[in-house]
Design goal:
With 133 residues, the protein is an all-alpha fold. The protein is globular and about 45 Å long. It starts with a helix and ends in a 5-residue tail after the last helix.
């Protein structure tokens, strides 16, 4: 299971992310993207964050499904800021300038208590032309 694999990587201090990048490459090369949902529903916020990060590293077409996008939207309210940040990064390709849902979520996250989440949301708003009205 991917959960056990990622957990074992978290315990390694000498990896420098190489093994995690190999996991990302497996998904780029056709591994079933639904396996990442196991990470997104974990009780361990580190696993959730890594799952969202993995998605953010992939082409949007690979994970553009209602179930994954719905889960990512839900993670934007997660208690852990790194989860919110990585969920936002994974969702960025789904945002559309003419969609009220995109604007509302980015406006909410642009007021996030975490600097990284807040700045990322503000940057996304600028790129989509929100706030220039």
């Amino acid at each position: 299971m991917i959960e056990n694999e990622v957990l074992s990587l978290l315990g390694k201090s000498d990896d420098n992310g190489e093994e995690l990048n190999k996991i990302v490459d497996r998904f780029r090369n056709g591994c079933d993207i639904q396996n990442i949902e196991d990470l997104l529903i974990s009780q361990n916020s580190k696993l959730v964050s890594i799952g969202a990060w993995i998605l953010s590293e992939l082409q949007f077409e690979l994970y553009n499904s209602n179930s994954i996008l719905s889960r990512l939207y839900g993670l934007t309210t997660h208690r852990a800021p790194d989860v919110r940040f990585n969920a936002l990064m994974a969702l960025f390709p789904a945002f559309e300038a003419n969609k009220l849902e995109s604007k509302q979520l980015l406006e909410k996250l642009s007021k996030d208590p975490n600097d990284g989440v807040r700045l990322c949301a503000q940057s996304a708003m600028e790129r989509l032309g929100f706030g220039s009205e």
